[in-house]
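Dear Dr. L.,

I hope this message finds you well. Following up on our conversation about the binding site, I have prepared a predicted three-dimensional model of the protein together with protoporphyrin IX containing FE. For your records, I am including the exact sequence and ligand specification that went into the calculation, followed by the structure tokens. Please feel free to forward this to your student if that is useful.
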Amino acid sequence: MTAIEAPRTPVRPAPKRGINWEKWGWIYMRASGVVLIVLIFTHLFVNLMVGDGVKAIDFGFVGGKWAHPFWQWWDVAMLWLALIHGANGMRTLVNDYTNPGLVQKALKGALFIATAALIVLGTLVVFTFDPCPAGSPADLLPSFCSAV
Amino acid sequence: MPENSAGTLTAPTKPAKQRPGGTLYRGREGMWSWVLHRITGVAIFFFLLVHVLDTALVRVSPEAYNAVIGTYQTPIMGLGEVALVGAIVFHAFNGLRVILVDFWSWATRHQRFLFYVVVVLWVVTMLAFVPRHLINVFSH
Ligand code: HEM
Ligand code: HEM
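The resulting structure of the complex is given below.
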């Protein structure tokens, strides 16, 4: 389909068989959006508004947060929901601004690879994080490291 | 204020002066909110790609992470963070507006009013955020 349909073109019924992925993508954008408001606004409030805000962020700050499974899962949920929401939104733009063909396939492939790679990387980072790496100067580490 | 109901093909009795009839999304608030939603969405996506990589530096070393996160604390990046938060806050509130317009017929009819609600909420949120953030960035 190359031309944009006229506004009042009668609806084409969705295929009767199989999963309607486009519909579930549409629903996902809305469901994830509602959850992301809470996740991201809290993330920004805790990291930018509380205390000295952005000036307080360093390795020790991250170590302090990820010492709690609560913030680990918070960040992982934010990572998955936001990246899939954003990538699916970018897919809409690719559909809007390119014609079907090799370029469109390549762009969607690049989106998929970048998103999958960052989801795996970000999840591993959260769950393999070591707040007290051996041999690092103590003043760079969270305060609880000296107790171990 | 009843608008032309979407989905009917009856011609308007008087030719519309400003607004093409029968569409929510062409021209004016309906279109500009969509343009902004799209631009902010793309901007946030590209920020997030970089942001996951910079956070991943905690697995390299404390020194590497601190060096990169230190650049977030410079005045120029501080202003960039204001732009980023402004983009997120608009996208989030307008996203809620889009959801309401999709599911609730009252909101569909009042989508233009709701756009101004989004603008007001955006201003209020930014008034709460920007002064505090800039004080953090430019003092200490
Ligand atoms: C200037 C604004 C921002 C700052 C200073 C900031 C700072 C941070 C910091 C310090 C972390 C480490 C862990 C933590 O504190 O929870 C982090 C992680 C994270 N942030 Fe942000 N953030 C900002 C904006 C955002 C935005 C807008 C999003 C979403 C679109 C986001 C998504 C994430 C995600 C998904 C993680 C986890 C990364 C991972 O799993 O490796 N951040 N951020
Ligand atoms: C803060 C909470 C968020 C809410 C409530 C939200 C809401 C929405 C909604 C409802 C849509 C669908 C619009 C439509 O179908 O017309 C959408 C599209 C989109 N969102 Fe979000 N979103 C949020 C966060 C994010 C984040 C973190 C990103 C980037 C990582 C993002 C990137 C996009 C993109 C690229 C689109 C496609 C825009 C378009 O098709 O014009 N959004 N958003």
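In brief: The pocket of protoporphyrin IX containing FE (ligand 2) is lined by residues A 29-30, 33, 36-37, 40, 82, 85-86, 89-90, 92; B 37-38, 41-42, 44-45, 48, 88, 91-92, 95-96, 98-99 (CB under 6 Å).

With kind regards,
A. P.
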